[in-house]
Amino acid sequence: MGDASRSDRKTPRQVGRAASVERRVFLVLPFVGAILYGGWSLHRADSYFGELESFGVETQATIISKQIVRSNTKPARTTYDMTVGFTVGDKMRRGHVRVTRRFFHDHAPPDRVPIRYLPDDPQVRWVDPAMQGHSMRGTLTIVGILLFIGVANLFIEGNRRGGIRRRTGEQGQ
Q: What angle (nearest 5°) sits at the alpha carbon of residue 125, between those of residues 138 and 120?
């Protein structure tokens, strides 16, 4: 009975290896998260804008109204929205589009602007081509934060290990 319990115990080296594997996984997680989130977001944006680029129809839209929307979050986020009217076939459509700050300030009702939409789904549309790059700014921010966390973790781990080596080296002398 005593022999069975001894064989179940882990040596300090085995415990250290398990902790080392857990530590490595923890160190790699921000990098994996950055890659997965960046890839997923890029795919989403590429499919949305790619579809509009490949299959979209361009026509003229009239700006009906525009508004600045500020969120109640900390920090406050500002978005620029416009209501536009455009014709699809013989039907008059009206819808909201998000635009960049520059586009918002450069255009006012009743300006006419080019609009690109999907013929099968006119709800998928854009009037401001700069929104394609603008939509990736949030993604790049999150990916940057995750990469910063990953590098900071590696730096902290390197200092921790260096401190252990220095202490063990001092004790051995």
A: 130
Which two three-digit tokens encode residue 125?
């549309």
**Helix count and strand count (H, E) for the chain:** 4, 5
Inter-residue contact 82 to 99 (CB < 8 Å)? yes
Give pTM, 2 decimals: 0.59
Rounding to the nearest 10 degrees, give the CA dihedral for residues 151, 156, 157, 163. 150
Query: Residue 163 and residue 165: Cα distance in Å, rounded?
Result: 5
Question: Residue 117 is encoded by which pair of tokens?
Answer: 């939409």
pLDDT digits (tens, 9 = 90+) for 80-101: 999 999 999 899 999 999 999 9
Quickly count: other Cβ atoms within 10 Å of residue 101's Cβ: 13
| Pairwise CA distance, residues 97 & 27, whole Å | 41
